[in-house]
TrEMBL record:
It comes from the Eukaryota. Residues 55-85 are annotated as: Disordered. PANTHER family: NADH DEHYDROGENASE [UBIQUINONE] 1 ALPHA SUBCOMPLEX SUBUNIT 1 (PTHR17098:SF2), NADH-UBIQUINONE OXIDOREDUCTASE MWFE SUBUNIT (PTHR17098). It comes from Kwoniella dejecticola CBS 10117. This is NADH dehydrogenase [ubiquinone] 1 alpha subcomplex subunit 1. One of its GO terms (cellular component) is mitochondrial inner membrane. Its main location: mitochondrion. Keywords: Electron transport, Membrane, Mitochondrion, Mitochondrion inner membrane, Respiratory chain, Transmembrane, Transmembrane helix, Transport. The chain crosses the membrane at residues 7-26. Accessory subunit of the mitochondrial membrane respiratory chain NADH dehydrogenase (Complex I), that is believed not to be involved in catalysis. Complex I functions in the transfer of electrons from NADH to the respiratory chain. The immediate electron acceptor for the enzyme is believed to be ubiquinone. InterPro entries: NADH_Ub_cplx-1_asu_su-1. It is a single-pass membrane protein.
Length: 85
């Protein structure tokens, strides 16, 4: 049974394009997460801790080992405030 060699070119193109798209998507996800794999099934505690880490380090995935928070942490509250006249 002969092999239809003409079909290998579109098959190769599809394989390369799906592979390139998947690789680029994975790279983009890792770059937005500071090189770490993405998190799934986050509950409210994890979301709160991620917000705290963002306020401490400037990154959702960054963590600080310093036991004392920087001075800016006291004023960059997560709560929106309104101006009092």
């Amino acid at each position: 049974m002969p092999v239809p060699w003409e079909a290998l070119i579109p098959f190769g193109l599809l394989t390369v394009m799906f592979g390139a798209t998947g690789t680029l998507f994975n790279t983009a996800k890792r770059l937005t997460n500071d090189g770490k794999p993405p998190r799934y099934n986050l509950d409210s505690w994890e979301s709160m801790m991620m917000e705290r880490d963002r306020r401490l380090t400037g990154s959702l995935r960054g963590q600080s080992t310093d036991p004392i928070a920087p001075k800016e942490f006291a004023t960059n509250s997560v709560w929106d405030t309104e101006r009092v006249h």
